[in-house]
Amino acid sequence: MSTPKMVDVFTDAEIDTALATNPAGYAIAAMADEDPRILTMSADLGATLADFREKYPDRYLEFGIAETNSISVAAGLATCGYVPYIYSMSPFGVLKCAEQLRTDVAYTHLPVRLVGRLTGLAMGYFGTSHHAVEDIAVARAITGMTVVTPADSGAVLSLMRSTRDVAGPVYLRIAEGAEPVYETPPDIEFGRWPHLRDGNDVTLIAHGLGTGLAVRAAARLESQGIEADVYDAAYLKPFDEEAIVESLTRTGRVLTVEDHSEVGGLGALVAEVSGRRKLGADLSRLALPDVDLEVGVPAELYEYYGLTADNVVRRTLALIDGD
């Protein structure tokens, strides 16, 4: 698969800014130039789509906080030959709209794309109603739903490209403030996990915000003589089962890292494969606990719950020591 081609929507300087601040908005504006079927819908995230709205005002719909309506309208538009991209806050676009996603979109196999912003604890200061920590579990449980989780801005561009022609629905979960992982938009094959680092001592698998943590932790572990095999779990449905099997068979131990509940996320996925394929690997999960989560500034919440590169190092060393 070749590097995703971005059409000339912005100047080079504007592209750099878009990648740093609004990759999902830039990607959809670029793709719309190539495909007149693409239209966008906003559930109170219109600022993300400002460039698209200016360029294609007749292909933009604003729904405000009527998230459930946006899903159903998108389903109707998809039956008319359009490919709707809904930009929504993940705690509402997935959790609030699970019935509409399942019945209106997935059951009818329609090409609706839900672009979820403000995932994990990105709105932690608003409390439980604004946490998006069960969204992967819900989305993966919906038959026919493709679920992708970009590691950084470049991966957003690549994953929007690699899922553009998927026949059914797609949930694209964008992490806020993720550290850069890729120097340029990576080649990401549908359903496959980019292999970021070779190692035989331990496997680190992460997605979204966690990928940058795993990469930085692996660099620190190398200075201690530990070589980690690192994967970016960019696709969570379908997912790269063979990558799990090959790596865990070699290393015998794995740590998963994610800003999602420990229930139904990446850790559960890897544990399922390990058990079903009888790999016998030691498994440790770094995720958000299945408790009532605290309310606060997102960066402080991630520190509180141990979603840091330092803690990935600590958890990896404990796994290797058998703790």
Automatic annotation (TrEMBL):
Q: Name one GO molecular function term.
A: magnesium ion binding
Q: Which Gene3D superfamilies match?
A: 3.40.50.920, 3.40.50.970
Q: Which SUPFAM superfamilies match?
A: Thiamin diphosphate-binding fold (THDP-binding), TK C-terminal domain-like
Specify the domain of life of the species encoding this protein. Answer: Bacteria
Mind telling me which SMART domains this protein's record contains?
Transket_pyr
Tell me which cofactor or cofactors this protein depends on.
thiamine diphosphate
Signal peptide segment: none
Question: Which keywords does UniProt give here?
Answer: Thiamine pyrophosphate
Pfam families reported for this sequence: Transket_pyr (PF02779), Transketolase_C (PF02780)
Name the family: Belongs to the transketolase family.
The name under which this protein is listed is Transketolase
